[in-house]
Amino acid sequence: QVQLAESGGGLVQAGGSLRLSCAASGTIYSIDVMGWYRQAPGKQRELVATITSDGRINYADSVKGRFSISRDNAKNTVDLQMNSLNPEDTAVYYCRTYAPQLLRDYWGQGTQVTVSS
């Protein structure tokens, strides 16, 4: 069993920055992908960024060049540095770790990010 704990959300003005952190308790395997998703009010949950244990990264087009994901395999953490935030980035951000090959899929409780104009 894996538990994910997010931190770092909050209120920021447009153009500002925030850093989200996610710490996983339990066993994280090298095959596990870790990442961040978000859900804005009235919208479906969407991918923000994912990272594999060997550093392969995938970003949503909407955040490329502004957000940066990083992972510490030794500490089982994944961070999301968010720069140049705009009101469209307002959402609840969720940490996720998954490995379809192992039927593993875990989500955190989410952390609110609000960007004011």
Layout of secondary structure:
Elements: E1 3-7, E2 10-13, E3 18-25, E4 33-39, E5 46-51, E6 57-59, E7 67-72, E8 77-82, E9 91-99, E10 104-107, E11 111-116
Parallel strand pairs: 2-11
Antiparallel strand pairs: 1-3, 3-8, 4-5, 4-9, 5-6, 7-8, 9-10, 9-11
Describe the structure.
The strands form two sheets. Strands 2, 4, 5, 6, 9, 10 and 11 form a seven-stranded mixed sheet that branches. By secondary structure, the protein is an all-beta fold. The chain is globular and about 40 Å long. It is 0% helix and 55% strand. The chain has strands spanning 3-7, 10-13, 18-25, 33-39, 46-51, 57-59, 67-72, 77-82, 91-99, 104-107, 111-116. The protein contains no helices and eleven strands. The model has no long low-confidence stretch (mean pLDDT 97). A hairpin with a 6-residue loop joins β4 and β5 (46-51).
The ordered H/E elements are EEEEEEEEEEE
Instruction: Provide the structure class.
Output: mainly beta
Major sheet size, sense and barrel closure: 7 strands, mixed
- Distance separating the two termini: 40 Å
> Unreliable stretches, pLDDT < 50, 5 or more residues?
none
Q: Could you tell me the mean pLDDT?
A: 97
Number of helices: 0
- The coarse overall form would be globular
Whole-number radius of gyration?
14 Å
Estimate percent helicity: under 10%
Amount of beta strand: over 45%
Based on DSSP secondary structure assignment, what is the total number of beta strands?
11
